[in-house]
Amino acid sequence: MDMSRFHAAFFEESREGLDIAESGLLGMESGRSDADTINAIFRAAHSIKGGAGTFGFKYISDFTHVMETLLDEARAGKRHLDSAAVSVLLTSVDVLRGMLQYAESGGALDQPAIDASKRELDTLLTGVAPPMPTAAAAKPKSDGPECWRIHFRPFESLFMSGNDPLRMLRELADLGARDIVCLEDTLPKFGAFDPVNAYLGWSFELPGTVKRAAIDDVFAWVEDQCDLVIEAVEPEVADVDVAPVAVETAASNDAHAPTASGGGAESSIRVAVTKVDALINLVGEIVITQAMLQQRAEGLDPVQFEGLLAAINQLERNSRDLQEAVMSVRMLPVDFAFSRFPRMVRDLATRLGKKVRLKTVGEQTELDKGVIEKIVDPLVHLIRNSIDHGLESPEDRRAAGKDETGTISLTARHQGGHIVIEVTDDGRGLNRDKILAKAIERNLPLAENPTDAQVWELIFHPGFSTADKLTDVSGRGVGMDVVRKNIQALGGSVDIRSVTGKGSTMTIRLPLTLAILDGMTVAVGSEVFVLPLNVVIESLQPKDDEVRTIGGGDRVLRLRDDYIPMVNLSEQYGFGPGTCAMLDTPSIAVVVESEGKRIALEVDELIGQQQVVIKNLESNYRKVAGVSGATILGDGRVALIVDADGLAQHIRMKDAA
Questions:
Q1: Which of 57, 300, 327, 473 has its CA 20 to 30 A from that of 153?
Q2: What is the mean pLDDT of residues 606-630?
Q3: CB 433: neighbour CB atoms within 10 A?
Q4: With helix as H, strand as E and coil as C, how does 127-185 read?
């Protein structure tokens, strides 16, 4: 039996349980000590303990048992969890995360942290600080079971697959197999014996120091051709007096479980992300096929082919509904990203000696799972910046007539087919004069009378910072270029609003999904390209005197008071001179922006705007410079998606050379 998938489910569920526990504990610290919150934390700890015991992670179940006992007393009304107790439990959550990481990926256990956290829990539980461990007692306990008991009985057909039990027995002997017993009860009578069949089985033990993964590797090729049982044999538990409490607690929880899960709760199943991605890809193919049918049917006589056209229209509606339904599978509440910030804000504010109140709004707003995973890092950076440099100290806030507790608001909402996430603080705001002085010091280009928006844009320059003293937490401006780059990589944008003395707002606008792109289709010769709409600034038909040729044969476009480099897409992708060049007619320049730089892409024709299903070109063909992907148009043709960032970077490297 392949246990790895069960292990993966346990680790995933345990981490979700820890998130619930952490959220609940933070809520208790804010005064939400109701029965539902304590019960939710208890259930999370109990589930982790039960799962860890099942899979032989005794060190996790032992540790969680103490937490569980403490929480059980709290939910029974025998104990009040004050702020100090909540802090101890939050630390325990961190320790458990480390244990899960160790159990899943190996590495090293932070034994001192585990011992310290365990002592704090014991002190809370008993009211008496346990003695510090002696050198002998401090010796790390065994992290695995006492031994593994294995029962291996191959199917008769095992030899037919080319596998040899002798090879596996030798590998197991190398791992320290002991107490080997040959199971010969299924041997047939001599006359019925067939030498191509496997009749014997074995049972034996392996030391607990052997990793479970090493055992699984031995049986990796025969797991579906044998009866295999691998059990973790736990050592005798010394503290027998505690065991009945654990049993009683478990029974008590079980008694509550049906009530908690009843009442028509929505059921769910776990599905691998790869399967969902494959499903989305297939739906994309159906949508493309439907578009092809519709395009082919445009020239048909509506009277003669009335039935066929009605069926195609019905297919279009069903395809659209199917696409929306499948896309919703990948949609998760943005709370999956927001839920990690209360703890971060609490810890960081404590560390910096500030008082911070975090408000979250719109947590149930749904966003593609891939976008959520990638937006977390930029949000972490923005929130750390707001706490470290945006919010003033309590003394400064009181002196300014403000509430000594600063507020950071994290909001999410849908707007025009996009999701908008805002990070707002009521701190000191950006200092316009300071930013301008730093820009002049660094010789950054400045408009004559820059607007506030133009000044705030300066902090996105690489390495730009107005901080007098850089800390290990953040620096307003340090890394903001990376924040913008990561957001743009998701097809989004970031803007700043700030009022001195009143605070700042960072607005992030993101597409709902990474699978579909809003694009502008353009023609270059007989080829069609797609430009991501979020990078397109404007398009124009330049006059002859607005295009100049400079050294090296490169051309630039004079756009109002600026000159920007031009890239002929036909020549860029090796199609030779474009149609406009051959007919000596004016081409069209589409101005796009990448990392704050603008370039003009020369095309022959603007076709229109449409949503396209993105196909990964690299995994199906190879990486092509200047191309970020491909799509299939309604007429069946393949259109490449232009990588504006790649083209801009190519120009910068060319200029630097």
A1: 57
A2: 79
A3: 10
A4: CCCCCCCCCCCCCCCCCCCCEEEEEEEECHHHHHHCCCHHHHHHHHHHHCCEEEEEECC
Residue 627 backbone phi and psi in degrees, to 5: -130, 130
Residues 6 or more apart in contact with residue 382 via CB below 8 angstroms: 423, 483, 506
Sign of the torsion angle spanned by Cα atoms 63, 65, 69, 72:
positive
Total residue length of the chain? 657
Q: From CA 142, how far away is CA 205, in angstroms rounded?
A: 17
Asked if 338 contacts 412 with a C-beta cutoff of 8 angstroms, the reply is: yes
Contact 148, 232 (CB under 8 A): yes
Nearest to 534 by CA among 484, 574, 572, 468: 484
Write phi, then psi, for 262 (nearest 5 degrees): -80, -165
The first and second tokens of residue 579, run together, are 């149609």
Phi, psi of 423, rounded to the nearest 5 degrees: -115, 115
pLDDT given at position 361: 92
- Return the bridge partners of 603, or none: 588
Nearest to 277 by CA among 333, 330, 332, 334: 330
Q: Cβ distance 526 to 578 under 8 Å? A: no
Joined tokens for residue 414:
């849908």
Q: Please, what's the largest Cα pairwise distance for the chain?
A: 102
Could you tell me the pTM of the whole model?
A: 0.57
* Alpha carbons 319 and 570: distance in angstroms, whole number: 35
How far is the C-alpha of 536 from the C-alpha of 258, rounded, in Å?
Answer: 55
DSSP state of 376: H
Predicted confidence (pLDDT) at residue 25 exceeds the cutoff of 90 = no
Interval 277-308: pLDDT, tens: 788 878 877 877 887 788 788 888 888 888 99
DSSP designation for 196: T
Residue 516 predicted with pLDDT over 80: no
Position with higher pLDDT, 197 vs 475: 197
pLDDT exceeds 60 at position 266: no
Window from 102-116, 141-155, 486-500, 558-572 with minimum mean pLDDT: 141-155
Burial zone of 358 (CB within 10 Å; 0-12 exposed, 13-18 middle, 19+ buried): buried
pLDDT of res. 235: 64
Kindly tell me the burial class for residue 75, based on how many C-beta atoms sit within 10 Å of its own C-beta (0-12, 13-18, 19 or more).
buried
How far is the first Cα of the chain from the last one, in angstroms, to the nearest whole number? 59
Nearest of 302, 181, 163 to residue 223 by alpha carbon: 163
Please name the residues in contact with 83: beta carbons below 8 A apart, sequence gap of 6 or more. Answer: 29
Q: Give the CA distances from residue 473 to residues 90, 91, 92, 349, 380, in Å, rounded to whole numbers and listed in that order.
A: 21, 21, 24, 11, 11
Minimal CA–CA distance to 26: which of 365, 442, 338? Answer: 338
- Residue pair 532/594 in contact by the 8 Å Cβ criterion: no
Query: What's the sign of the alpha-carbon dihedral 540, 543, 544, 545?
Result: negative
- At residue 252 the predicted structure's pLDDT band, cuts being 50, 70 and 90, is very low
CA distance 648 to 599: 7
CA distance 620 to 622: 7
CA pair distance 157, 547, nearest whole angstrom: 77
With 50 as the cut, is the pLDDT of residue 168 above it? Answer: yes
Tokens of 389: 């440099």
